[in-house]
Write a structure and sequence with these properties.
Belongs to the cytochrome P450 family. This protein has 355 residues and is mainly alpha-helical. It has a single domain, classed as Cytochrome p450 (Orthogonal Bundle), CATH 1.10.630. Helix content is 65%, strand content 4%. The chain contains 16 helices and 3 strands. It has a 3-stranded antiparallel β-sheet with strand order 1-3-2. The mean pLDDT is 89.
Length: 355
């Protein structure tokens, strides 16, 4: 593939947002990312526009927003905090990048499909669905740097990265087919009162609102859409949180300013004690928002606001309640990957800020 690389935010906005129609991804891109099917990452022109408009509409709906707030609060309170508390209590060194990836994978799966793969627990289990995503991302990276003939040979012999890619594809197909089947059954006997109380995931919206989308919402479309959205939410948000946390750990003045800003939003009697912040308390925090944007260098996507809600919930919980010490023995450097992971993880020792 002939490539032109740019890191200028203005260029990224020009290509990805303002003039997207002038830069179709084309058949080679779709072949490279064939596992994503006809989802939004692989789509061009009218199909891309229709998918983007539909996705934005569902994500802006008050029922999805309601579901988002409940999901993120539950995951922070019952998933993230117990692990961090356990590490702090026993003086353990933990890989925060891995914790963030588990958090965002669980959250993405719940928000998109309504089902929780439960990667984020004290046992830190190896979940086949999550590992399948990691394997195919790695294989796609190799497709970009190896001769196409070598990739075809691996694919034909079913070995190496392409062998793992094929196995990952089957795992993803099987899991998403099960999710879709169960969701269709639930949608057929949907209780409107229950939906109003609990909110609604995106897969349910695509199934129940298919007439209004103008899209053919068959099982393949739902599979492709769900996978694209999970991928979009999983690694980008966790990677942003990883580098943000690392940057904050290197700048104590920044950390203190974020804590001061958080305390300005709560009654004096409730300061200097453990607490979680709700969305209303953190949504207008200028300094925290600016620090996240600085770590991102700008993010442009349909799920931008959803990602910011997640990041602010996690960042406020960690920074306000804990001291995070990054281990100098394990250098924090970028890995060669499709998404900018760290090479060695974000190894940290954590202690409680308040008793």
């Amino acid at each position: 593939m002939n490539l032109v690389a740019t890191c200028d935010p203005a260029n990224a906005r020009y290509v990805m947002s303002c003039n997207f129609d002038n830069f179709p991804k084309g058949p080679e891109f779709k072949q490279m990312f064939d596992i994503l099917g006809d989802g939004i990452f692989n789509s061009d022109m009218d199909l891309w526009k229709n998918q983007r408009i539909t996705a934005q509409g569902f994500m802006r709906h008050h029922l999805f927003h309601q579901f988002l707030l409940r999901t993120i609060r539950d995951k922070v309170e019952m998933g993230l905090m117990p692990i961090i508390d356990h590490a702090a209590k026993h003086g353990l060194v933990i890989n925060l990048e891995d914790i963030f990836r588990r958090f965002t994978f669980d959250s993405a799966c719940i928000l998109v499909t309504g089902y929780d793969p439960s990667c984020l627990s004290l046992e830190l289990p190896q979940v086949l669905f999550s590992k399948a995503v990691d394997y195919f991302e790695q294989a796609i990276l190799y497709r970009h740097v190896r001769p196409r003939s070598f990739t075809k040979l691996q694919k034909w012999l079913n070995i190496g990265q392409e062998g793992k890619y094929k196995k990952s594809w089957k795992v993803l197909d099987d899991v998403l087919a099960e999710y879709t089947c169960q969701k269709r059954k639930e949608a057929n006997k949907l209780n409107q009162e229950l939906v109003s109380v609990d909110g609604v995931d995106l897969l349910t919206s695509y199934i129940t609102e298919k007439e209004s989308t103008g899209l053919i919402c068959d099982d393949k479309f739902l599979r492709d859409t769900a996978l694209n959205m999970i991928i979009a939410a999983k690694d980008t948000t966790s990677t942003a949180l990883t580098w943000f946390t690392w940057l904050v750990s290197k700048h104590p003045i920044l950390e203190n300013k974020i804590i001061e800003e958080l305390e300005s939003k709560i009654p004096i009697a409730e300061t200097k004690r453990r607490r979680l912040f709700n969305v209303d308390e953190v949504k207008n925090l200028v300094y925290l928002h600016g620090a996240l944007c600085e770590a991102l260098r700008p993010r442009i996507c349909s799920g931008k606001e959803t990602s910011f809600i997640q990041m602010k919930a996690v960042a406020s919980a960690l920074i306000y309640n804990y001291h995070i010490h990054v281990m100098e023995e394990t250098p924090v450097v970028p890995a060669v990957s499709v998404v900018q992971h760290t090479k060695n993880g974000l190894m940290t020792r954590i202690s409680k800020r308040w008793e």
